[in-house]
Amino acid sequence: MIKQYLNKFITSILLHGICFILIISCTKTPASTLNTAQNSSIYFTINEVNYITNGWATISNGTLKINGSTSYSPTKQILLYLKTSTIGTYILNSSEGPQGNGNTGTYTEGVAPFGLTVFSTDASNIGSVTISKFDMINKVVSGTFYFDATQISPLTGGGIKISNGSFNNIPINE
Fold first, then answer.
1. Cβ atoms 93, 123 nearer than 8 A
2. N or C: which end of the chain has fewer CB within 10 A?
3. Cβ-Cβ contacts under 8 Å for 117 (sequence gap 6 or more)
4. Nearest Cα to 126, choosing from 96, 104, 157?
5. Do the Cβ atoms of 166 and 43 come closer than 8 Å?
6. Number of C-alpha atoms within 13 angstroms, CB side, residue 125?
7. Burial (CB count <10 Å: 0-12, 13-18, 19+), residue 90
């Protein structure tokens, strides 16, 4: 009986600690600093709140995958799947990810294993990515992005707007 109470008490303290860390770690970044992305960072805005994530990119089977993920909880992750790896502007209008034939923008938020909420572009919720630098000698990519996405998991129906997205010289891992 005491052991069960102690386990519940410790779990409660841990959850309150995580909530406290979440509250103090989410800060607004002045919009004026959004376009000054440093190496390996991806910047984006959701509902007028600016976020900075660690960024990296991979190329596999002709698909460029640009990935940004926060280091705090609940994790916020941006994924951009492009069926090309060249400089240009590309429409995000698919929800198929790397398996599909289209370009996809995805945003995921949550804490595994407690639950992740996933939003994705589709034919009605679109966006754009502009690749302004693609340098395979130095293995870096730079550009800007925005997209509207609909909630696809765990339930459908909600939406999210990603704006002011930028990435500068994020590393390409092969």
1. yes
2. N
3. 108, 109, 110, 151, 153, 154
4. 104
5. yes
6. 21
7. buried
Which residues are CB-neighbours of 163 under 8 A, at least 6 positions away?
44, 45, 46, 146
In whole angstroms, what is the distance from residue 88 CA to residue 168 CA?
15
The model's pTM is 0.75
Beta bridge mates, 130:
89, 144
Indicate the SS3 state at residue 10.
Answer: helix
In one letter, which amino acid is 23? I
Give residue-wise pLDDT tens across range 41-68: 999 999 899 999 999 999 988 889 999 9
Instruction: Read off the pLDDT of residues 89-101 as tens digits, 9 standing for 90 and up.
Output: 999 998 776 666 6
DSSP secondary-structure letter at 38?
P
Report strand pairing: 63-69 vs 75-82.
antiparallel
What mean pLDDT do residues 17-25 have? 35
Q: Which sequence spans correspond to the domains of the chain?
A: 37-173
Structure-block tokens of residue 164: 């002011």
Residue 60: burial class (beta carbons within 10 Å; 0-12, 13-18, 19+): exposed
- CA–CA dist 27, 133 (Å, integer): 29
Q: What are phi and psi of 7, to 5 degrees?
A: -60, -45
